[in-house]
Amino acid sequence: MKKWTSDYISAFDDVLVNFDHKIYDLVDAQSPEEFDGIVPGAVYGHIQGAINIPPEEVFDATNNTWLDISQTAQIFISNGLHETRPVIIYCGTSLHASMLWFSLHRLKYNATIYFGSWPEWVIRAPDNLKVIPKQNENSLLPSSKENLRTSNSNSQTTTFMPQQKKKQ
């Protein structure tokens, strides 16, 4: 069994440290609607400073084919990426991120997938590093400053409380 390697996978701390060191470009592979946080039903948005490149820009689902290398290269360049700078890609599940990872590797980019992706970031990251529209911000998400096991009745956020076992 192979172990995960930093050649392919980035962790929460890699993304967090990048805000100080600016080593990587950060690419969000969510749909534009998820990136902008306008999809109902969950907390959507993006990591501060991320560039949105959904996989549909490099993959033609109608024909089930990847764009050719020159077209793909132009998309990445027009979004500010350069093959000499490493890239961290994320989305909501790592599925779309893996599609962009493949496209970046075809062009010899040094790219990794942030495995925890948006769901981990939205829970663990400082609030100033999340971009979440106000209509979603208060509906489902506890503040990163709140303890998830306590309730704050003055809070505008929903707090997640573990179920207490009943004594019998």
UniProtKB/TrEMBL annotation:
Residues covered by the Rhodanese domain: 45-130
The Polar residues compositionally biased stretches are 140-162
In which domain of life is the source organism classified?
Eukaryota
- Which PROSITE patterns does the UniProt entry name for this protein? RHODANESE_3
Q: Which UniProt keywords apply?
A: Repeat, Transferase
**Positions of region (Disordered):** 140-168
CC terms in the record's Gene Ontology section = mitochondrion
- Mind telling me which InterPro entries this protein's record contains? Rhodanese-like_dom, Rhodanese-like_dom_sf, TST/MPST-like
Q: Name one GO molecular function term.
A: thiosulfate-cyanide sulfurtransferase activity
| PANTHER family linked | RHODANESE DOMAIN-CONTAINING PROTEIN, THIOSULFATE SULFERTANSFERASE
Output this protein's name.
Answer: Rhodanese domain-containing protein
Q: What is the lineage of its organism?
A: Eukaryota, Metazoa, Ecdysozoa, Nematoda, Chromadorea
